[in-house]
Design brief:
alpha/beta, eight-stranded parallel β-sheet, three-stranded antiparallel β-sheet
Length: 320
């Protein structure tokens, strides 16, 4: 099996998660420049909007980056596929839907495909469809999540045991400890979302970053269980309004309207937490600084290597 870094032509086994309509070129390029795989999330943006971000990202870095297409979220799936082919984007991640029909089209143009999955069943199907890499996302993750509610620690080893292609762990990971733990579980790398928000290059509102810095272990909340479409976000005035609305009764249409990318933008970019939400994974309670992306990735790699050395040393002690 080809190693993840060689397969994706990156230096460090760290991938940026798609961030929907708040995706941007500065952060995507910074992750790629630091040796990871930056990712542009398409969300509900038009192909024209996504194209502008792709062009700007290419102006900021010559290193590989990915585009995430959320299949059931966007109405521009085929247009976005044509767009990544047009701009020779080397990697595409497919989430929120069946990736099988799109994989042959992307492979025909030499594009590597990452499929985001949340169960062993879906992982096997994605491998059968010839996905190159799987991102296995646990319920600790930010934003749109699987209603299956499997956690990263239980999900990763089961999927690793069921498939032969590289598996990337996502959900609840934001430091070197998380990276080394994922590797110990059999993953080939990790995907981060929330932790990249709290970096110097990330062009999000300071209120968003400050909320992450002050968050504790129970400061995220799940919205959408009653309609079967769950999302994890930070506790804010707007999140409280959503909870109250859920308790009164909310249709799926109302839920989707109240948790659209419009409200995501209002919270994350404008910093208006009365009228918009901010996504966050459970890793928020471990965030205590705002480094550069380069500093973050370097510290994660260094810490992970040291953790693995320490584990080996512990086993040597056990064997005495």
């Amino acid at each position: 099996m080809l190693h993840l870094t060689k397969l994706l032509n990156i230096t460090n086994p760290i991938i940026q998660g798609g961030m929907g309509n708040i995706s941007n070129a500065p952060l995507t390029a910074a992750v790629s420049e630091a040796g990871g795989l930056g990712t542009i999330g398409c969300g509900t943006m038009t192909p024209e909007e996504v194209e502008k971000i792709i062009i700007e990202t290419k102006e900021r870095t010559t290193k590989p980056f990915a585009v995430n297409i959320p299949i059931s979220v966007t109405k521009f799936v085929r247009d976005l596929v044509d767009l990544v082919i047009k701009h020779n984007v080397p990697v595409v991640s497919l989430s929120a839907g069946n990736p099988a029909p799109l994989i042959p089209i992307l492979h025909e143009h030499g594009i590597k495909v990452i499929a985001v999955v949340a169960s062993v069943k879906h992982a096997k199907k994605a491998e059968e469809a010839q996905a190159d890499v799987l991102v296995a996302e646990g319920f600790e993750a930010a934003g749109i999540n699987s209603s299956l509610e499997l956690t990263t620690f239980t999900l990763i080893p089961q999927i690793v045991a069921a498939v032969k292609i590289p598996v990337v762990a996502a959900g609840g990971i934001g430091n070197g400890q998380g990276l080394s733990a994922a590797l110990m579980l059999g993953a080939s790398g990790v995907q981060l979302g929330t932790r990249f928000i709290a970096t110097k290059e990330a062009p999000f509102h300071d209120i968003y970053k400050e909320k992450l810095l002050t968050a504790n272990d129970i400061d995220t909340v799940i919205i959408g269980r009653p309609v079967g479409k769950v999302r994890r976000m930070l506790k804010t005035p707007y999140a409280h309004k959503l909870i109250q609305q859920e308790q009164k009764g909310m249709t799926e249409e109302e839920y989707l309207d109240l948790t659209s990318e419009k409200q995501h933008y209002i919270g994350a970019i404008l910093g208006d937490l009365e009228n918009g939400f901010i996504n966050s994974g459970q890793i928020a309670g471990l965030i205590s600084s705002i480094p550069t992306v380069q500093e973050l990735i370097e510290s994660m790699m260094s810490e992970a290597k040291q953790n693995i050395v320490n584990v080996v040393s512990e086993f040597e002690v056990f064997s005495l």
